Amino acid sequence: MGDYSVIADVSASLVKLLRENMTPDPIPQPEMIGLASPVDKGDFYLSLYLYNVRESGDNRQTHMIARGTTQIQYPPMVVDLSYLLTVHSPAELQSRALDEHRILGRAMQVLYDHSILRGSMTVGTLAEKDEEVRIVMEPHKGESILNMWNFADTPYRLSVSYTVGPVNIDSTRIKTTKRVTETDFRIEG
Predict the structure, then answer these.
(1) Which residues of the chain register pLDDT less than 70?
(2) Is 181 a member of any domain?
(3) How far apart are CA 113 and CA 156, in angstroms?
(4) How far apart are CA 82 and CA 49, in angstroms?
(5) CATH number assigned to the domain comprising residue 120
(6) Is residue 67 domain-resident?
(7) pLDDT recorded at residue 145
(8) Three-state DSSP state, 127
(9) What is the reported pLDDT for 154?
(10) For residue range 87-117, what is the model confidence (pLDDT) as tens digits?
(11) How many domains does the chain have?
(12) Both ends of the chain: CA-CA distance in Å?
C-alpha cells in the first residue's frame, strides 16, 4: 500500500527500469529517457506519459485493516495506470524509422522481461512497503491508438501503451473501535 505519492513512485520506478536496461545501447545516456508528454519530449529519445488512471474493479478491496487494537483503517483505493511509451529518434531521416524500431523493440523487451516491478526495481513507497505491480502491454487496434494520440497539431509518433497495476493508494480514514475482550459461553441442558 502507498500514500498519495505512489503514482509518482510507479512512474519513477518505470523510468529507473528503462534507464538501467537501455543505456548505453540503444540510448546513449540515461537522461534521454524520462517522463513527458509526446508533445513536450525535450531531448528524450524515449518518453513515458501517464495518460489514464482508472479504478481497478477486479482488485478492489472491501475489508478493513486493523491498526492496533482500537483502530481500523478503510481499505485502499486500487487503480491501474495507463502509460504511452513514445520513441523520438534524433537520427537522420534515412535511418530514423529503423532507429525508432530498435529503441521501441528494446523498450518492449525490457518491460516484458521485467513484467513485475518489485524489490530493487522500485522506489519510494513501493520500495518501503515492498509492493509489486504488473506491467502489461495494452492491445490497441491501429485506429484507437491514433485516436488516443490527440495532441494538437503534432504528427503521430511510434508509440505503444502499457497498463501498470494494481496500485494501492491508502485511505486516510480511520475508525475507532472497541474489541471484544471477553466471551461468555453457557450450555443449558
Answers:
(1) 1, 141-152, 179-181, 189
(2) no
(3) 27
(4) 8
(5) 3.30.2000
(6) yes
(7) 66
(8) helix
(9) 73
(10) 999 889 899 999 999 999 999 999 999 999 9
(11) 1
(12) 50
Asked if residue 184 belongs to a domain, the reply is: no
Contact criterion met (CB below 8 Å) for 22 and 110? yes
DSSP structure class, residue 58:
G
93-113 vs 6-22: helix crossing angle, rounded to 10: 120
Q: Are strands 133-137 and 174-176 parallel, antiparallel or unpaired?
A: unpaired
DSSP string, 2-49: B-TTHHHHHHHHHHHHHHHHHTTTTSS-GGGEEE--STT-TT-SEEEE
Lookup: cell for 171: 485511505
Q: Are 71 and 174 in contact (CB under 8 A)?
A: yes
**Grid cell listed for 174:** 480511520
HSE, side-chain direction, 13 A CA sphere, residue 22: 31
**What are the pLDDT digits (tens) for 37-49?**
888 878 999 999 9
Domain membership flag for residue 74: yes
Q: What confidence score (pLDDT) does residue 175 get?
A: 77
pTM: 0.86
Task: Please name every residue paired with 83 in a beta bridge, in sequence order, or none if there are none.
Answer: 50, 162
Domain that holds residue 24: 6-176
Q: Which three cell numbers stand for residue 95?
A: 535511418
